[in-house]
Design brief:
This protein has about 675 residues and is of the alpha+beta class.
């Protein structure tokens, strides 16, 4: 599985492997051939095999990889030059192995392209407006109730009108004075309304679907909205309250658990304990110690009672949230009850809504995934049409639509050979879109809509089709129109290839090549040595009698085999002897380091045992199993270096030092 962080580094043309292995000192070994070249029309930096890297490419990527704004030093340039040579050779090798023709590679690159294309297919002015709107809404929280009447997005005109009339009649009853809660519990198609009377609690931007959110923010406090439609159906909203956003709070928590079905005795006991906790806190006892002693909230108890930051619209009991937000930083609450039990909390921190600059990228990402982004794309689609002389062929379109029968309303329509013609229905730039093209789109997007008008549905589908094709048209031209996009796509292309081939040649190979790993370890054992260790035999006994007998024999100098044979003769398993070696830095090593012979220590966790300390063991090589992680990492480095040497032999490098020396000067 590919790491996002790796790919981000790769798009700057430095792999995580290359960075990990970059030389600490100035490069001297394996120095490539160099020449002093006279200035030429297209300056080049280096060649590798038959390929050339030009100054513009190298300088652009070096600038991109530099995190600070200072000009790179000569050492920076030379270091990056070495890394970039390796990068280009690896990518070239991957292309020769045709890794870029594999379906998984194409699919992954297409996925990245789709993401990278999004900013080019949205209107900046509209997108910026949506970001600002979302941020302004984040500053306010809304408490609202709603009533829903189900109506599918593809409902017939008859069913749509019936749903609208029903919700309108409900609104009229509310406006005339009937109780909203009562009507919601009896009439709303939202199943939760039976219990919550349609109340949604407090919310802010991005917590409801966009049209619902917009209606809630645009409806004044105390008012009932006009009916409006979402993909779920028709709604009316009653805005109960609005307030300035409370931000987030972080608390430490002690809970005495009851539960919704607790008996009165359990409730009384929990209350008494919570009162005791509060009294101890007021007397100055440590909150953390009382958490450990009393709290039954296992989730926070393991963290000394500390909970994560939460908002006033998070999924916690209302009383819990209200209490937390009513306190100041450092305050401790009196005991209070929720359905879960009795609580005492201490406020550790509070923070308000962050500045726009702190959350702008997060909001931008959410806007891009939200239905509100569609408005931005529609603006772009219209602009693309205008820029590329969009034209509709109304007569051909009308003729085709008239030929589509009512099977389209049952989603069973199949276009006939007669219908599939090359007559144009629209053109964009130099590209023509035929009846056959639109027929395929219509066939793939038909839905059951009994009672509707075929031509009206097809007219709407054609608008959607033309907008989508306009965006595709622009997307296909992005490499031609925008150098930044073209360069970024090349970097992603190369980065994915580099990852795939490095995984094959180095990372996976080091893990799966057990023979090679063992050989590498055998040839480098002196690099993986234990320090001085104390050798300890642990005698674990089944009972006091076995321990007494074994301890007596050990003190008398009997060998472990002798002791085990005698003690276990009466009852197998009465004595188990294990051998261990500990370095001085280990806890056990420190305990036994200066000891020798038989050591009887107090029983630990009801286990009867004693120790025989043989003494200090000189340094010796570690077995592969004892240092597998480090050895595997070193083996990967070894494979990487060997691979680089092969590539350098296959793709000889020539550096144009005159151009390199001129970079960024």
């Amino acid at each position: 599985m590919k790491s996002t962080s790796f790919l981000l580094v790769a798009t700057s043309c430095i792999t995580s492997v290359a960075l990990a292995q970059k030389p600490a000192a100035k490069l001297t070994a394996n120095k490539p051939s160099t020449i002093a070249a006279a200035p030429i029309a297209t300056p080049w930096v280096f060649t590798f095999g038959a390929d050339t890297v030009y100054k513009a490419e190298f300088e652009r990527l070096l600038s991109k990889n530099k995190k600070d704004k200072e000009r790179p030093t000569e050492a920076d340039v030379r270091e990056y030059l070495e890394l970039y040579q390796k990068f280009k050779m690896k990518v070239k090798e991957a292309e020769l192995l045709k890794l870029d023709t594999i379906a998984s590679f194409k699919s992954e690159l297409a996925g990245y392209r789709k993401q990278l294309a999004n900013p080019y297919l949205t209107d900046k002015k509209v997108s910026d407006g949506l970001i600002k709107e979302a941020y302004e809404r984040m500053k306010q929280e809304v408490n609202a109730s709603h009533i829903l009447i189900n109506c599918a997005e593809n409902a017939s005109a008859k069913d749509t009108l019936a749903a609208y009339n029903k919700i309108l009649a409900i609104r009229n009853r509310i406006v005339k004075g009937e109780n909203f809660d009562s009507i919601a519990s009896k009439n709303s198609d939202d199943p939760s309304a039976v219990k919550n009377f349609g109340n949604l609690g407090w919310f802010t931007s991005f917590q409801m679907i966009y049209p619902f959110e917009t209606q809630a923010y645009n409806t004044p406090k105390g008012q009932v909205s006009m009916p409006f439609r979402t993909r779920f159906g028709y709604h009316v909203i009653k805005v109960l309250d609005k307030r300035v956003a409370r931000g987030e709070v972080k608390v430490s928590h002690i809970m005495l658990q009851t539960g919704p079905s607790a008996t009165q005795d359990v409730i009384d006991l929990a209350k008494a304990k919570s009162d005791t906790v509060y009294q101890k806190l007021m007397a100055g006892e440590s909150f953390e110690k009382l958490v450990d002693t009393y709290s039954q909230d296992q989730g926070s108890k393991a963290n000394a009672g500390v909970m994560n930051y939460f908002t006033s619209y998070s999924n916690y009991p209302e009383q819990f949230k209200e209490t937390a937000f009513a306190l100041n930083k450092g305050d401790i609450s009196k005991p209070f009850k929720t359905d879960y039990g009795y609580h005492v909390i201490k406020v550790l921190d509070k923070k308000g809504v962050p500045e726009l600059k702190e959350v702008e990228e997060s909001i931008k990402s959410k806007v891009g995934r939200d239905s509100r982004a569609e408005s931005s794309k529609l603006v772009v689609a219209e602009r693309i049409k205008k820029q590329n002389n969009y034209k509709e062929y109304a007569a051909n379109l009308k003729e085709f639509m008239a030929s589509v029968d009512t099977t389209f309303l049952q989603a069973t329509w199949m276009p006939s050979d007669k219908q599939l013609t090359t007559k144009p229905v629209m053109s964009l730039g130099s590209k023509m879109y035929t009846v056959t093209d639109f027929a395929a789109y219509a066939k793939g997007n038909q839905e059951a809509r009994p009672g509707e008008n075929v031509q009206m549905i097809l007219t709407g589908l054609f608008k959607k089709y033309s907008d989508e094709e306009a965006l595709k048209y622009e997307e296909n031209l992005l490499e031609q129109k925008y150098a930044d996009f073209r360069n970024l796509m090349q970097e992603y292309h190369d980065g994915i290839l580099l990852f795939d081939l490095t995984d094959k040649k180095v990372w996976t190979k080091a893990v799966s090549d057990s023979t090679g790993l063992e050989r590498f370890h055998s040839n480098n054992k002196e690099k993986y040595m234990w320090k001085d260790r104390v050798k300890v035999y642990t005698y674990t006994c089944v009972d006091a009698k076995a321990k007494k007998e074994a301890l007596k024999m050990a003190t008398a100098g009997k060998s472990g085999d002798e002791i085990k044979a005698k003690v276990n003769k009466k009852l197998a398993g009465s004595l188990v002897i294990t051998e261990n070696k500990y370095e001085k830095a280990d806890a056990q090593g420190e305990k036994f380091w200066d000891k020798k012979g038989v050591v009887d220590m107090p029983n630990e966790a009801n286990v009867l045992k004693f120790f025989v300390i043989e003494g200090i063991v000189a340094p010796e090589p570690k077995a592969l199993k004892d240092a597998r992680g480090l050895i595997t990492s070193d083996y990967q480095n070894y494979l990487e270096k060997e691979w680089i040497n092969e590539l350098k032999a296959k793709y000889p490098v020539i550096v144009n030092n005159q151009v390199v020396d001129s970079l960024f000067k």
